[in-house]
Amino acid sequence: MKQVVFYETGLPEEVLKLEEAPMPQPKPHEILIRVTARNINPSDIMFIRGMYGITPKLPSSAGFEAAGIVEKSDEKNSIPVGTKVIFTAIGTWKEYVCVPAHLVIPSPSGMTDEVACQAFVNPLTAYGMLESSGLQEGDWLLVTAGASAYGKQVIQMAKQKGIKVACTVRREEQKSLLTQLGADLVINTDKEKLQKVIMEKTGEGVNVVFDAVGGVLGARALASLKAGGKMMVFGLLSLENIPLNSGLLIFKNLKVEGFWLTTWMNSLSPEATGKAFKTVFAYLLSQKVKVDVEASFPMEQFKEALAAYEKEGRNGKIILIS
Length: 322
Prior knowledge:
Layout: E1 2-6, H1 12-15, E2 16-20, E3 30-39, H2 42-48, E4 60-61, E5 65-72, E6 84-88, E7 96-100, E8 104-106, H3 113-116, H4 121-133, E9 140-143, H5 149-160, E10 164-169, H6 174-181, E11 185-188, H7 194-202, E12 206-211, H8 215-222, E13 225-233, H9 246-251, E14 255-258, H10 261-266, H11 270-286, E15 293-298, H12 302-310, E16 317-321
Parallel strand pairs: 9-10, 9-12, 10-11, 12-13, 13-14, 15-16
Antiparallel strand pairs: 1-2, 1-4, 3-5, 3-7, 3-16, 5-6, 6-8
Helix pairs in contact: 4-5
Organism: Fontibacter flavus
Protein name: Zinc-dependent alcohol dehydrogenase family protein
Pfam families: ADH_N, ADH_zinc_N
């Protein structure tokens, strides 16, 4: 089978290689999946660079999230051969993977591979952060990197709950796109001062910040919180830590906490897990939450896919298909 691997961490365009590898053999509790679609997430890039929370065991394939078709079921025949499925694993940029049966989810009827392969990480992170945030109808949420795939999804989910959403962008043309999705306030941080606009429009600041960027923008987002507010940090797109203002934390009684989907999922009961998937899949199938695809590339063209991923102004996901 073909797979995209790296033998050392570094920039994806420098360290990734396409090679032939033996067909994986599933253990009794595992399912063999023929992978049909994978989306490229920021976490994939950070993993390849050795900057993610999970350290790669080299050599390693890239990618965490994918969709595929069951080629061989586990010993209990938990999911029949031929079933379309959604799953996460370490290293999905290959033609076949073996995944423990309990981590494999049948794809909802009517969901395309291009949607299914991005139906896990971003939508569930958006759902989980909203559930954990304490936000109520009428509260204000500030989302950094609002035009990202995650940002667009959390805007749409928040609107379902009556939460007011402010978000940051760096391109003027992204304002109308996010407003159409339901954002109440879109701020171009290359042209506008974030805290000034937030205070003018909200009166006292936002209740919660979801920050994916870190660095100086993260610090400005923190300063946009109202007294007693909370920042939830789940990404570091700037690759720079947030310079925390101790005075703000003390005198405005602010809280800063991290969010990682894996940890949150592990904390859920089976009932809560089922509810999360049911809600997210219902959003996607009904198109109450829409996902965008910029372009699809065969896995063999991963270099072209990475170039498209890095393209400035991209408004949809880049998909690797088989």
